[in-house]
Design brief:
Strands 1, 21, 23, 24, 27, 29, 30 and 32 form an eight-stranded mixed beta sheet that branches. A seven-stranded mixed beta sheet has the order 35-34-33-36-39-38-40, with helices on both faces. A five-stranded mixed beta sheet has the order 4-3-18-19-17, covered by helices on one side. The longest helix has 24 residues. α16 packs across α19. It is an alpha+beta fold and 1516 residues long. A hairpin with a 2-residue loop joins β9 and β10. The chain contains 48 helices and 41 strands.
């Protein structure tokens, strides 16, 4: 009988035996708080998670692990416990990894970090099987050693399916990424139907993903299980009394707080376990602050901290892992473990390469140069035609030449007129093109306006460039083959005028060409008559002979043709012709418009100023020569440097370490005479010899070596189709034989060059010549170049086609599976950098030289220097040859470049670490952490836990310098914090139960109001699902006999975020996108913000498809991925920590000048657009099966009640509200009832899900059913780039206004916000249908007929009076949003811009949801609603109460009356509505109706029993 792990999530009520502290009575027993977190989707088999983790280490580890497991599966598992199963998996898994990787494997497994990937695989398998017809009589048993899976594998493409021929028994339920199925389809289908129906240890099923959480209790913020360390007894006992006292010190005097940070550091550095001490202090700070404040401070600690703070701001925190800075704000446990795993994996690979450990540490600490486009094109040549020279021309004689004026302050945008060629703006252009002529026109204008820039041009003919490309970079031998074109004629005329009339006249000629073109009204490029007319007009005044005669003579005799060709050839060699028009600012490549020039000058100016300041540039310095000598390149290729050079790197280490490594068997070609030299640069050329471009790339590689390269070698891999013709086989085999046997020959490169030329000319142009002709030619060329044709031809004739085909398949699998390039794609791979060569691009030998110089400088040189200094141990001296060393450098540079980490660093060694720092670990540790930490900060709370876990997992060396705030005047931490991760102890040692990790807060203060928050990774959306008590207002003394308050949160979804961009334009504001699966392409949708092009959508692990929404978005735009256009982008979610998706869009042809947002002229835009977005009026929201898998899910992310209208008719009224805490949820139910009782139209309520309690979410479906309304829960994750509020109430206010354009589905046209504590007395349909006169927002102005409140009307005086300028100040308790107009006018983007500007000042927008729209109403106009739509006793007189359509329970700043008391007194119907709502709630929850509270007016502040929260105190 099978034993199975009990799956599901179990909450344990912990029975604690507490030692009672003297003075505690029974009624004051200590109280605790316990928090747990679970995932919404079902758990995945732990065994498969282990296999997935191992496969990431090495591709063969998965199969080895499965084999080990199956070989031992005969063991009796009936008596295994959950911990036994985990231990068994860990034992087998750790046997396949070495050293510290084993600890990381264990930690990653308990973290369930590969669970999302298995969910992804399961979805892919289900999608594959949905289109796979499984025959009824299929036999899933193995017969005669061959199963049906073998037959299926034979049909599959070997490049797409990673078939393992030695897989144990030939079985495994594993799938590829959707391309094909693996192995036994029947078994796979069986597993997908019931993944639980397996042996206990084989599929250790954890019901829900138990994830790490950081939780805080603010006054509350989810701890490791206490470890038994007897040596720490004395230190722990020192904290015993303050921790057990369960009191919070809030009566410390200011002088007691002053040195609190320094005292904390002293306590930490003197502890025997500093990390543990730091964690205990900052996670329980309110309880230990009194103890710390009484410590006597050592002067040495304080002095060192203050000395360090002269170099780093007090309270600043920094951290670096192996030298690379880590973003502390963004760091979480998953990211940190990934970074550590990455470093340890590299160290493990380098160890296999026999690199010594001390060298490994040095390699891992190297940082690449920051990615920048700072390479300057060396354009210095006589081909540059300058119109001016600031240092020599008389027109600049009056300018000053003092460079120190560059350091003088000026107004923004003001230019400095200095007689020095600081800025060389050289334009590369075709003078017959539109952009060329317009650029020259702008250049002449800027020159005439005396811009302090030296202007010049380099002219070229596009047709000549095409001729050069077709002839290998050379012009045809006879001039007759070069047809004259308009560009060439224009260039020749330019040179003639320059020679006879001067440079200014030559530029005037080009300007006149454009003038005549514009005057003729033609928008196309210039015509011949424009050029001829401009020539005549330019030279007419000074001509000694008729200009027409001169023109005719020039056109016939081809004067200056050589100059024209040389100029075009120069541009061709520079590689700038493909850019059409471009600007070189001191060699840096930019766009060609006037705005680009000013931006380029602003970018260049700080570099010049810095060098002037340090004396590196003086009056005698040639600026251009200096800059070009520092970082010049001879050629520009946007795929290698520039905006298009989005580098892709792959690690080649695994391809070298493996036993049957492909790269180890490659023989390389070298420049003549360098075969025995070390080659730090390795070019691997993957070429398709069946294409002209492939043969061209191969030929250019040979020419590159012929030109000479002392630092590089070239290896060839053929990326051609398997179905080759015979001459292609012969050609490839000839190359392989030459590289393996004749690469040392002096003329080997000449032989290959001639062979490429012959093959390209004879076999690439559709020739029908036989293979024998090719063989004869090869023999002749071999003899001519001293290659002994007899031996060469013998080897060539003996090769096996089958053997070579098998080798080609292996090459294809390597290129597709490891490098990531498709069959037939020509690619250059330089030390791991992958540069694909599209058919539309000409890739020359000069580009390989460019690759060599750029990559050697940026990535390779510093690694090569380290490798050359290595003292090799345990390495056979015979192997220490140039190939071995070159392979090592190629391997190390490729793997280091493939690391995903920052290139920024900090000089931590400058900070003293003698008294106020902690230094841990060995100097030879693989991982080294440098950190500057404020232990009494929120980042310190998180870092203390992360570093402690890390120290146990990977034994790093650490240097932690403490940097607390000095001279504190307030408590720096007012919360309790627990950082929780799954551990081995979660697995039961008595049965098959698995408990999730829990955060446990012991001995919490009883009389303090606490609030619970979760600190989770940025991409997580969590919500409470089990909580009896109000988590916003926790008062432990009200728990009665309950000792521990318990709450369970759920990870309901992951947030997919991204940024959208349009080249050379601002992000397309208002772009609409939809996301879904193959079966349901539209499950969620969103609007792109103009702010950074940001967007977000909710997802779960799996495969998703993103596309532009039907309508104007998809009509105007298409998705762009590099040079390719797509209608859909596939996104895989296989990681619990999301990564931003960078999305490019481009306008369709013919739509370039159309605007996405076209504001409606109709004043009531929502009515006009009623049918505009009907495409998603029935929008599909989250299906529960997507988030919950096959498991049970109580509430889906988007919840709708059944369509019960109870006789309601008409257009649905959409009402939006937000509530947090039980008190405001009580008000919210009353508001709902008041709305429903005053209208006969259908009503749909929208609630912000983030802050609703589990009880409310349990009750609202029943309430919707009972009263006949619809509802939907919506949420939006606060964007990481937007300044975040810290107080929970201010965050809630922000949700009322900041995300209105993106939080609702795009199909929603209008919504009314109604405050939770509002009572409605009128039909809200009247307000919903009101014409807003084309305004996106409608608010009610504050009424002013209650004269008693005149002193509190701040908007009638000071700043607000001046800012509003007669406009009314509106109240935010009720407002209407015309979402169509709101999105059309980008009101949301504007409000976020105002918020980002104002919110960083803590004294501004104190009432965020109200101040922000009022402040912005000049830009986002507000329609003022009639006064009767909102009545509030605090501001309105009683005379208008009878006309009130809604009554808001505003806080009265004079009386501070509690809301419950005010509600009963002010609103006659409120008690009846309240009683009805409480009766209904009690009936649903099965509780007794609570009695009506006895209201007592407090003298100063409301009683705790009133459950007041921050909103009561802050609301106007």
């Amino acid at each position: 009988m099978e034993t199975r792990i009990r799956s599901g999530f179990w909450m344990l009520i912990l029975i604690l035996i507490c030692v009672m502290v003297c003075g505690y009575s029974e009624t004051r027993r200590p109280k605790n708080v316990q928090v747990a977190l679970r995932a919404k989707w079902p758990g995945t088999p732990l065994l498969l998670e282990a296999g997935e983790l191992l496969s990431k280490e090495w591709k063969d580890h998965f199969w080895e692990f499965i084999e080990v497991w199956l070989n031992n599966e005969s063991e009796n598992t009936d008596h295994y416990t959950a911990k036994d199963c985990l231990q068994k998996i860990l034992t087998y898994g750790k046997s396949l990894v070495t050293g510290q990787l084993a600890s990381v494997f264990e930690l990653s497994l308990t973290l369930r970090s590969s669970s999302p990937r298995l969910v992804l695989y399961q979805q892919l398998a289900e999608e594959s099987l949905s289109s796979y017809s499984l025959s009824d009589d299929i036999n899933i048993n193995i017969i005669d050693g061959e199963s049906n899976e073998g037959k299926e594998a034979k049909k599959a493409d070997p490049l797409l399916v990673g078939v393992n021929p030695t897989s144990p028994g030939g079985k495994c339920c594993w799938v590829d990424t959707g391309a094909a199925l693996f192995f036994d389809v029947a078994d796979l289908r069986l597993w997908l139907r019931d993944p639980h129906n397996q042996a206990a240890c084989e599929l250790l099923q954890i019901g829900s993903l138990k994830a790490l959480i950081g939780s805080s209790l603010n006054e509350l913020n989810p701890k490791f299980k206490p470890e038994r360390k007897p040596e720490l007894t004395s230190e722990i006992m020192a904290f015993r009394d303050p921790l057990l006292s369960s009191t919070v010190s809030d009566t410390l005097n200011v002088w007691e707080l002053k040195d609190l940070g320094h005292q904390t550091v002293q306590k930490i550095v003197h502890a025997s376990d500093p990390l543990h001490s730091m964690q205990e202090i900052n996670q329980n700070f309110p309880s230990v602050v009194s103890y710390l404040s009484r410590m006597k401070l050592e002067d040495s600690i304080k002095d060192e901290i203050l000395a360090n703070q002269r170099m780093i701001p007090p309270g600043k925190s920094l951290m670096a892992l192996n030298g690379a800075l880590v973003d502390i704000e963004d760091i979480d446990f998953y990211l940190l473990i990934d970074m550590v795993h990455q470093e340890l994996s590299l160290a493990d690979q380098y160890t296999k390469l026999k690199i010594p450990s001390r060298t490994i540490r040095k390699l891992l600490s190297t940082l690449p140069l920051p990615d920048s486009n700072s390479f300057r094109v060396d354009f210095r040549s006589d081909h540059v035609q300058y119109i001016n020279n600031l240092e020599m021309d008389a027109r600049y004689k009056q300018w000053r030449s003092n460079l120190n004026e560059l350091l003088m302050p000026v107004f923004p945008g003001q230019l400095r007129y200095i007689r020095k060629n600081l800025f060389h703006a050289v334009y590369v252009l075709d003078p017959a093109s539109i952009c060329g002529l317009e650029t020259v026109d702008n250049l002449v204008t800027m020159f005439e306006n005396s811009l302090p820039v030296r202007f010049g041009v380099i002219l070229y003919s596009t047709k000549m460039i095409e001729t050069l490309e077709a002839n290998g970079g050379e012009f045809p031998p006879t001039e007759s083959e070069v047809d004259e074109d308009l560009s060439s004629l224009t260039i020749r005329l330019f040179f003639h005028i320059k020679e006879t009339h001067g440079m200014l006249k030559a530029f005037e000629f080009l300007s006149n060409v454009n003038k005549l073109r514009m005057d003729s009204g033609e928008e196309d490029a210039s015509m011949l008559h424009h050029v001829e007319g401009a020539f005549v007009e330019t030279v007419l005044q000074k001509a000694k002979t008729p200009p027409q005669d001169t023109l005719s003579k020039l056109e016939k005799d081809q004067s200056f043709l050589k100059s024209s060709q040389e100029s075009s050839l120069f541009v061709f060699k520079l590689g700038l012709a493909k850019l059409e028009c471009s600007l070189l600012m001191n060699g840096l490549v930019h766009n060609y418009d006037e705005e680009a020039l000013m931006n380029a000058m602003n970018d260049e100016l700080p570099r010049i100023q810095e060098q002037v300041y340090y004396g590196q540039i003086n009056s005698r310095t040639d600026i251009l020569d200096k800059f070009l000598s520092e970082s010049r390149i001879q050629r520009y290729n946007p795929q290698i440097v520039g905006d298009k050079a989005k580098s892709k790197f792959v690690s080649l280490t695994s391809s070298i370490v493996g036993e049957e490594s492909l790269l180890n068997n490659i023989e390389y070609l070298h420049s003549a005479g360098t075969i025995d030299d070390l080659k730090p640069v390795t070019h691997l050329l993957a070429v398709d010899v069946t294409s002209r471009k492939g043969v061209k790339l191969l030929h250019e590689g040979i020419r590159y070596l012929m030109a000479g390269s002392a630092n590089a070698r070239v290896g060839l891999v053929f990326n051609s189709d398997f179905a080759l013709d015979s001459h292609s086989f012969v050609f490839m085999k000839a190359f392989e034989i030459t590289a393996s046997s004749y690469s040392h020959k002096k003329k080997v490169l000449n032989f290959l060059d001639q062979l490429c030329s012959f093959y390209a000319n004879e076999y690439m142009l559709g020739s029908t010549q036989s293979s024998q002709t090719l063989l004869d030619k090869i023999s002749g060329l071999a003899d001519a170049n001293g290659l002994q044709s007899k031996g060469f031809m013998s080897a060539l004739l003996e090769f096996s086609v089958d053997k070579f085909t098998a080798h080609m398949k292996k090459v294809g699998q390597f290129l597709h599976g490891h490098i990531g390039i498709e069959n037939g794609v020509n690619t250059a791979i330089t030390n791991g950098k992958v540069v694909q060569v599209p058919d539309s691009v000409t890739f020359l030998s000069q580009d390989l030289h460019l690759l060599e110089s750029v990559e050697f400088k940026k990535r390779i040189k510093h690694v090569a220097d380290i490798i050359e200094e290595v003292t090799w141990e345990n390495v056979d001296p015979d192997t220490l040859m140039s190939k071995f060393m070159s392979d090592i450098i190629m391997s190390v540079t490729s793997s280091l470049s493939s690391r995903d980490r920052s290139s920024e660093s900090a000089r931590f060694e400058m900070l003293s670490a003698e008294h106020s720092a902690v230094v841990i670990g060995s100097e030879n540790a693989t991982i080294h952490i440098d950190a500057v930490i404020d232990p009494l900060s929120s980042s310190g709370q998180k870092l203390s836990s992360l570093l402690r876990i890390l120290s146990k997992c990977s034994q790093p060396s650490m240097r932690l310098v403490f940097n607390p705030m000095s001279s504190l005047v307030d408590l720096p931490l007012k919360n309790y914090y627990r950082f929780v991760t799954p551990t081995m102890d979660d697995f039961s040692s008595t049965d098959l139960t698995v408990h999730g990790p829990k955060a446990f807060f012991a001995n919490m203060p009883l009389s303090k109001m606490l609030t619970m928050n979760l600190d989770v990774p940025e991409s997580w959306l969590v919500e409470p699902v089990i909580a009896v008590h109000d988590l916003d207002n926790i008062l432990l003394e009200n728990l009665g006999d309950t000792r521990t308050l318990q709450a369970v949160f759920e990870l309901e979804a992951l947030v997919l975020t991204g940024h959208c961009s349009e080249k050379d334009h601002e992000p397309p504001r208002g772009l609409q996108m939809i996301l879904g699966t193959k079966r349901s392409p539209h499950l969620v949708d969103t609007l792109m913000m103009a702010n950074l092009g940001y967007w977000q959508m909710k997802v779960s692990p799996g495969v998703w498809y993103l596309q532009l929404a039907p309508g104007r978005s998809s009509d105007l735009y298409v998705l762009q991925d590099g040079p390719e256009m797509h209608s859909t982008k596939r996104i895989t979610i296989d990681y619990l920590r999301g990564k931003p998706v960078h999305l490019g869009v481009v306008k369709k042809k013919g739509k370039e000048h159309e605007k996405l947002l076209i504001p409606s002229d109709d004043e009531d835009s929502s009515r006009k657009h009623g049918d505009q977005e009907s495409w998603n009026s029935n929008i599909l929201k989250w299906a529960s099966s997507l988030i919950g898998g096959n498991g049970h899910m109580k509430n889906s992310l988007s919840t709708k009640s059944d369509n019960v209208t109870n006789g309601r008719k008409g257009k649905t009224i959409n009402i939006f509200s937000i509530a947090s805490g039980h008190l405001y949820e009580r008000f919210l139910k009353i508001m709902i009832l008041s709305v429903l009782k005053n209208t006969q139209r259908p009503v749909k309520f929208w609630f912000i899900k983030n802050y609703l309690s589990p009880q409310f979410k349990d009750v609202i479906p029943h309430m919707a059913q009972e009263y006949g309304f619809e509802y939907e829960l919506v949420t939006y994750k606060w964007p990481s780039w937007l300044h975040k509020q810290k107080e929970k109430q201010r965050i809630i206010w922000a949700y009322k206004i900041l995300f209105l354009d993106v939080i609702f589905p795009l199909s929603l046209e209008k919504v009314i916000f109604v405050d939770a504590d509002q009572i409605v007395r009128a039909d809200m349909g009247e307000l919903y249908d009101m014409n807003l006169k084309g305004r996106p927002l409608a608010y009610t102005p504050f009424c002013d007929n209650n004269r008693d409140m005149d002193g509190f009307r701040f908007w009638k005086q000071g700043f607000w009076k001046e800012h509003l300028r007669g406009r009314p100040y509106h109240i935010s308790a009720l407002y209407v949003v015309d979402l169509v107009k709101f999105r059309e006018t980008a009101a949301g983007d504007n409000l976020r811009v105002f918020y980002e500007t104002l919110s960083k000042d803590p004294n501004s927008i104190s009432n965020l949801d109200q101040d922000l729209p009022n402040y912005a109403q000049h830009t986002v106009p507000i329609f003022s609603l009639p006064q009767e739509w909102l009545w509030c006793e605090s501001w309105c007189g009683n005379s208008t109460k009878t006309r009130a359509k809604t009554i808001d329970l505003c806080n009265n700043p004079m009386t501070k009356e509690p809301k419950l008391q005010g509600a009963r007194r002010i609103v006659a119907e409120w008690p009846d509505l309240d009683l009805e709502a409480r009766h209904f709630t009690s009936k649903i929850l099965g509780e007794d109706v609570s009695p009506v509270e006895k209201v007592v007016t407090p003298p100063v502040e409301p009683q705790v029993a009133e459950e007041e929260d921050l909103e009561t105190k802050a609301e106007l």
